[in-house]
Design a protein that fits this description.
The chain is mostly helical. The protein has one domain: NADH-ubiquinone/plastoquinone oxidoreductase chain 6, subunit NuoJ (Four Helix Bundle (Hemerythrin (Met), subunit A)). Helices cover 76% and strands 0% of the residues. It contains six helices and no strands. Helix 1 packs antiparallel against helix 2 and helix 2 packs antiparallel against helix 3. The chain starts with a helix and ends with a helix.
Length: 168
């Protein structure tokens, strides 16, 4: 892909990410805020695809958009009378928000200005999916198995808790 096309896609994704993030925070409808959250997470997946990290991009779509956002949307829709709720805020402490925003932007500008960004001399990996899979099954097999056992224990615990509550 050419540099110009990549640049155009990058700025389109950046505009989508910023706009959807603003809509999540400032939106008055809870359902629409959840939908904008999904759009934001999709734009982040687009950044991963631009970086040739296809596996991470697909995991972003499956786990976050396909899992988290869908669960949030189901939670909103299955809760009685919450889909049409309008959120209101008096914004009584607007000055605290403005001061915090200015402080955060100043801090980020200071950090970016004083940080030396080093570019690696190593050539990028061509097939990231098989490379990550090979790392999981060789160098990182112990943490991978520990996490799988931890997730299995959490699943068994959730079933036990659900069974105890259902029997009462």
């Amino acid at each position: 892909m050419g540099d110009t096309v990549s640049l155009v896609i990058f700025f389109a994704l950046a505009a989508m990410a910023v706009a959807s993030a603003i809509m999540v925070v400032t939106g008055r409808n809870l359902f629409h805020a959840a939908m904008f959250l999904g759009a934001h997470l999709l734009s982040i997946a687009g950044f991963y695809f631009l970086l040739n990290a296809e596996l991470v991009g697909i995991l972003q779509v499956f786990v976050y958009v396909g899992g988290v956002v869908v669960v949030v949307l189901f939670g909103i829709m299955l809760t009685a009378q919450i889909t049409n709720v309008r959120l209101t805020s008096a914004m009584e402490q607007r000055w605290v928000t403005v001061v915090s925003l200015i402080g955060l932007v100043g801090l980020l500008a200071f950090v970016v200005r004083d940080t030396v960004f080093r570019i690696s001399e190593m050539a990028p990996v061509e097939d990231t999916t098989s490379f990550i899979g090979r790392l999981f099954m060789t160098d990182y097999i112990l943490p991978f198995e520990v996490i799988s056992i931890l997730l299995l224990a959490a699943l068994i615990g959730a079933v036990v808790i659900a069974r105890e509550e259902g029997g009462k």
